Structure formats: structure tokens, C-alpha cells
Amino acid sequence: MDGMGRRTLLTGAVSLALGGCATTETTLRAVPVSTASQAYPDSPKSAFDRLMTGNRRWVTGALQHPDRDPTRRELLAAKQQPYGVVLACIDSRVPPELVFDTGLGDLFVMRTGGQAVGPVVTGSVEYGPMTGGTPLIVVLGHQRCGAIEAAYKALKDAKPLPGNLQAIVEALRPAYEQTVNEGSADPIETMAKTQVKLTADALRGNRDLAPLVNGKKLAVVSAFYSLDTGEVEVLNGAPS
Ligand SMILES: [Zn+2]
Fold first, then answer.
1. What separation in Å is there between the alpha carbon of 115 and the centre of ligand 1?
2. Pair 4, 45 in one domain
3. 1 and 108 in one domain?
4. Distance 147 CA to ligand 1 centre (A)
5. 91-112, pLDDT tens digit by residue?
6. Cβ atoms of residues 33 and 69 within 8 Å
7. pTM, two decimal places
């Protein structure tokens, strides 16, 4: 599919999200998942639009469950080309493939407590953009995050958590300190949002990813998921 064809498809997807038009949904469904690679979102903006359109379907219940059939599995058996990377929390209520209504081979997904990072996690996030041209990274925090709350209390009370849990606390310390310095009526939610923004900022500016970001080949978006509504709110970094 040429660039124009791809834009037309995505425009239809956006229309679906905004208008809930059944006709447009039918059109979108007609794209065979077995050839989904023809519509591969190869720019940060098109990948971002694909994910946000999927999130609208999750919010409204108009799910498509794309790319989840045996044909898709066979198509991907030899090679994958995900169009997005999502770094999210381990929370059982925030599985990226569901909240963005994606399927097999669509996303690289990393999940850690409070989406805390260290070298291994960061390397895993970088893998797609650095080796395969994946055009989008989303760092996704969420409402009422238990990991953030536990880290906030551990740091506030100076009571380390047992064992390896304390490693998560230490990884979240910069977000805690910024939250305390700035002050907040709802420090847990503020710390959760600060954590994703700091993480996205660090990825965007790191030595290996910054050239891709500056060349408009990669966008790093920070976002926040509402457990109440299912909606993903963009905090910063949305590609234009
Ligand atoms: Zn969480």
C-alpha cells in the first residue's frame, strides 16, 4: 500500500474513534489481518494514531481484536515487525494489548512494578527502535498504582521494603523526590505521572534514542491510564 492508501486507512480509523460510525468500522474490519503488514504504521504519528484509535475502541467497547488468528500467527512465524513499544506496570488491570486493542506481533511490551526501569529494561525498550525501526515508544502509568503507592510510603517513612522490592523503590526515587519538591494534593497520582514523564524524558534524550527522536523516526510518549474509564491520557511527547 502506498503512503496515500495508508493515510486513507488511518483517516478511517480516526473517524471511527471520533464518530463510532458502523460503516467505517466495517471498512476497517475488511482489511485482512493476514496482510496487516501492508498498512504498517511506519511513522511515529501513524503508530500513535493506531494505538489511540485502539484505545477508543477499548473505551467504547467497539473492539476489533485485530491480528489474533492462525493466519496472522503463520505470517509472523519467521519475522516480526511491531509498530510500537509499550512500557507499562505489572498491574493486572493494565495489559497494553487489551487497552490498545492490538494483536499478535503489534507491540513489544515491557512491564515492571510502577514501570520502573534499569539497564535491562531500558535495553529491552530500545531494542525495537534501534534494530527494527519501531517508530513509537509509550511509557504508560496508571491510576491507583500499588507500586507507586508502596514506593511513596517506603520513601516517605524511610522504611525499606523487603528483598528485591526495594530495588523498585529506589528506581522510583527520582519521581518521589520531584513530587515532594513540587508539592501535590494527590501525591500518589502526581508521583505516578511524574514517573512516566521522567522515564519518557530520559528515553527521549538518551544517547542511542535521541538521534532517532531528533530525526523524527521515533516518538516517545508518556501517558496515563484511567482504571475508571479505560482511557489513555497523553501527558507529553505526542507526535504531530
Ligand atoms: Zn501499577
1. 7
2. no
3. no
4. 5
5. 999 999 999 999 999 999 999 9
6. yes
7. 0.84
